[in-house]
Specification:
The complex is a heterodimer of chains A (333) and B (337).
Chain A (H helix, E strand, L loop, with lengths): L1 H30 L8 H8 L5 H36 L11 H16 L3 H23 L6 H25 L2 H12 L7 H29 L2 H6 L4 H23 L5 H12 L7 H21 L8 H22 L1
Helix pairs in contact in A: 1-3, 1-12, 3-8, 3-10, 3-11, 3-12, 4-5, 4-6, 4-7, 5-6, 5-10, 8-10, 11-12, 11-13, 12-13
Chain B lengths: L1 H31 L7 H9 L5 H35 L11 H15 L5 H23 L8 H24 L2 H10 L10 H19 L1 H7 L3 H6 L4 H23 L5 H13 L3 H26 L6 H19 L6
The chains are: A mainly alpha (333), B mainly alpha (337).
Chain lengths: 333, 337
Amino acid sequence: MRSSRVAPFRANITQVMLVLFTLLLILSTLFYGKNIANNLHEVWSLVSNQADQYRSIVVWQWRASRLFSAFIIGAALGVSGAVFQSLVRNPLGSPDITGFNVGAFTGVLITIALLGNLYWFTVIGALLGGLFSALLVYLFAYRDGHSGFRLIIVGIAISATLSAFNQWLSLTVSLETALTAALWNAGSLNGMTWSRIMPISLLIILLLISAGFVNSRMKLLEMGDDSAASLGVSVNKTRLLIMLIGVSLTAVTTAITGPISFISLAAPQIARQFSESKQTSLFTSACAGALLLVSADFIAQHGWENSTLPVGLVTISLGGIYLIYLIIREGKK
Amino acid sequence: MNNNIAEITHYRYRWLLCCLALLFTIMVASLCIGAKSLSIETLYNVLLGNEQGLPQTIILEGRLPRTLNGLFVGMALGTSGALIQAITRNPLADPGILGINLGASFAVAIAIVFLGATQFNDFFAYAAVGSLLTGLLVYFIGSMGPGKVDPLKLTLAGVAIGAVFAGLSSALTLFNPMAFDQVRFWSVGSLDIRTLSVPLFIAPVVVFSCLLAMTITPSLNAFSLGESLATTLGSKPIHIQLIALIIITLLCGAATAAAGPIGFVSLMMPHIARWMVGPDQRWTIPFSFILTPCLLLTSDIIGRVLVAGELRVSIVTAFIGAPILIYLVRRKEASSL
């Protein structure tokens, strides 16, 4: 009896701590820095729009747009990870299994080698390359519908071929081109201005809402194809729909930032640690993903003295360390 | 019924002989084919010591190390892949999943950036140490906690540790173009080493580990039924997992050190072995370690003759292996564990 009364209270404390942490993170992402705000008074002047032009441009044009991008992209990655892990019923499932990221890298390598390093060209190159590989995986895995296992194996095979092709490309092109492409491949939020993120964030929000709509059918599908079918879910159509949503979320985010790795893999796992139920919830995955990316980006910007790291390198290390911590903690129980 | 089992065993032995013959043929071909083709007669004479001059140099200093390297690296990759899939009970596991390749890459990146290593041969020791340490770390973290090693936890530990190492090595190399240049060549992997010392160094490790792997196959069969059933059947899951992990670490360390991180083969060959002989570890493991060198050496030969500058083995492997894997997964019902 007693434990059942205590448990929800503890969950609440975790939630409150998380909200406080998020607020602190937002404030420090916006205002931390030598020449921006040295005390609370200056922070207030920025919030009430009384600061000088230079500082308000830095905060409201550059930092706020970057913060917003981190939130929305993190949420998108978290949800797409949760969707794929549910789809293939394997905790190692992630949008990577469609080969999207590898294909996007192929597209970018070719674009940079042929047309040079221009932002919108790389976006289009990444989209075309990624969608092409996802389409290949989808077509080759289709045989009277899709089984999760076949999807994974075909995905691995196509990814392996494409990444071999990528390796060959990056050995053949000049060092400079290879290095530029590798920087893209690390994933970065540099240069996310409002004009770049706004049109795309609308698309992401639309996709997130539609993911919410198929959520209940997705849960039924997790029980197994046969049970889901007997409960009235049209299995193949639902799977296609879910896959489309998951791939689109990855596609949009990868195209604009490069592949920010590990969030889609780690966010659902981390979300599961915070929620009581065993099932993965889309909402908590989105929150975990967003929080992960925002904190990673803060570290990427301020962790090193002289340079801004690509955020993808931080997410992969940070997410990895956190996952290790979770595994160790669970082991000690 | 007995007759039936005998028939299956007979069928499997026949396959085994075919595969051994195939491996032998491919090894001979690997010694003969290349930028300068040599006849089998010349090869015979060189190996007996009757022929001097250019053919001897080509074979003894170029192709023999390369072929032996392919043989041992292939054996190591195939066996370690089959073992990892068995103990994690996950058909997607490979040395990459346990983070071992990435640990080796990280060690090589450190060696280049901080310790001034520049030669391919220098990387050998660092890669070996890196993969051994990573293997131990993954096992240590994955097996914390009372009683048993949870396959899922082991897998996640490997993915997590691998991710940290991957992030750190890119951070090291992205801001150091010289190191980036060297790592991009090392990380593609190659069988082409110009010295016999590397294959001869890893040979005892690989052979010993593969034999050890063969001795635990009956227990692995029991293990695939689930931990509690395996215990009931009289095997000790923890001991088996520990032995298997030591073998995997040794094999991956040897393979990565000798040839760089070659992925994918160790993932796909156990699947092909299972499609041939069914999910019996006593057979999938030997088939994996005979068939993997076949694929690796064939890819290496094709890479030699296809373009003038030689394509790296791991690139050809992916282009040959992936279509085979896709064909098989579409043809039959997938081989679960």
